[in-house]
Amino acid sequence: MKVMVRRSAIGVVQWCALALAVVSAVWALAWALGPNGLDAVELWRLGDVLMWSDANTIGPNEAVTIDGEAGVQSAIAAQELAGGMRDTANGTVGVEFYGNESHLTIYGASRVEQLAWMAVRALPLAGVAVIWWLVFRILGDIRRAAGFVPTVARRIIAIGALVAVGSPLAEWAQWAVADWIVEDSAAGAVATAAPLAVNLSVVVMGLVIVALGVAWREAAAMRRDLEGLV
Question: Any idea of the CA torsion for 25, 27, 33, 38, to the nearest 10 degrees?
Answer without folding.
Answer: -80
